[in-house]
Amino acid sequence: MIGWKEGAVGAALALAPVTAVAQQVGEGGPAARHTEIAIGVFQHGSNFHPLGSQLTFNLPELPPGYVYEGQEEDGTTDVEIAYRSRPLRILLKPRLTGKLQINTDGRTSFGSIGAEWRQHFFRDRIYVQGGIGLTVIDGYRFTPDPFQPGLSQDEAQRRYTIYRRRTSFGSTVLFNPNASIGVRLTPKWAVELAWEHYSHRQLFSDTNPGMDSLGVRLVHRFGR
Questions:
Q1: In terms of pTM, does the model score above 0.90?
Q2: 119-153: per-residue pLDDT in tens?
Q3: What is the pLDDT of residues 81-132, one digit of tens each?
Q4: 58 FRET partner, CA 20 to 30 A, in 20, 35, 102, 220?
Q5: In angstroms, what CA-CA distances link 210 with 112, 141, 178, 205, 220?
């Protein structure tokens, strides 16, 4: 017959692996408790918005010189640099984030601050995370009107070039919901498939085309 002490020790030994796995799945292992930096490449204007209901696929081709509103910058490429703090001990342990998403074709770039929440699986090998941020753009709230009466030919042409190449976001301050799936390659390196969205939900003006970006990030964590 096994005494209560032997039984307690046996139960503790039996639960130890389960507790370790639960810690990995919940908060994550050591790799989850350090600051991180990341660099990524994104498609600027990817026409993918999981929170919305109106996606514009297979639109009719427009004549030369015309473009759909909100798609003036689609098809270009962004480079993103990101910083993440170690998890805070409040509000479900978010990481504070700072991101700079720079367009390589001279279109709109985004600077964001926010927070991200992460959930780990399979002993920290895979994680999913979602976040929200506040973004400032270096682009146009409203592009200049090239059809305004009384413009000189040179000024009208200058404005028309901007009209065709740049998006009117309706505000210089936008919201940045985002999500990603990460796979840890080594204790210090991970790769992520990421989605970034920028819009203001028509809070600051009626013009709100929004923009989505899909890309991949290489993530490095600091510390042992």
A1: no
A2: 999 998 999 999 999 999 999 999 999 999 999 99
A3: 999 999 999 999 999 999 999 999 999 999 999 999 999 999 989 999 999 9
A4: 102
A5: 15, 12, 13, 12, 30
CA 76 vs CA 1, 79, 105, 128, 195: distances in Å: 73, 10, 6, 27, 16
CATH label of the domain that carries residue 60: 2.40.160.20
Tally the domains of the chain: 1
How is 34-52 classified by DSSP, letter by letter?
Answer: S-EEEEEEEEES----TT-
Tokens describing residue 198: 């920028």
User: Which domain does 203 fall in, by range?
Assistant: 4-221
Quickly tell me which residue has 């790769």 as its tokens. Answer: 191
- CA dist 216 and 79 (Å) reads 10
Among residues 100, 112, 52, 43, which one has the least CA distance to residue 77?
A: 43
Q: Specify the DSSP element, H or E, that contains 21.
A: helix 4-26
Would you say the C-alpha torsion 150, 154, 160, 162 has a positive or negative sign?
negative
| C-alpha to C-alpha distances, 19 to 4, 89, 176, 221, nearest whole angstrom | 21, 20, 35, 25
